[in-house]
Amino acid sequence: MAVYLITLHAYRSWGPDKSRGFVRKGLGIQPPSEELARMYDGQAGDDPVNFSPELQRVLIAGAYDICTRRDWWLRAVGTDPTHGHFLISQSGFMDWEAVRDKLKNILSLFLGRATGQPGRSWFVALGSRKHVKDQQHFDYLVATYLPDQRGLFRKKGDALPEIPAGIL
Known about the structure:
The protein is an alpha+beta fold. It has a domain at 2-11 and 49-155: 2-Layer Sandwich (Alpha-Beta Plaits), CATH 3.30.70.1290. 35% of the residues lie in helices and 22% in strands. A hairpin with a 3-residue loop joins strand 2 (22-24) and strand 3 (28-30).
């Protein structure tokens, strides 16, 4: 069974001016740069995204809906104002990039409906994943790592968060 922890970061949530540095594709972690932050801000198409508790509920309910319709299993979700972690499994092979892209695309639709802002950028260009290699790693994610995020948490068997009708 393929199990992945897919992380989707909020659009413009970690810019070059962060004191801990920032990540550039292909270059890894870079030192902070105020000049680069100003350049990125000038080129941005939308304002930065912050996932409020209301939007975190949409992320959780939306991810559950997306997985259910595709015969994937949403094992757990941990959210934060700047990102969401989605622990997803499927029998057999699972192309994590296709799962990430489908999550981003449809969650963007749901977030647009929830806020009345269709078509805006909700997530950074890509996203990351970790392959869950064994039961110990899985148990750690569900029992410790995901619940310790700064936002909402849901694991398989927990009630889904309530969101307004018409979003999913």
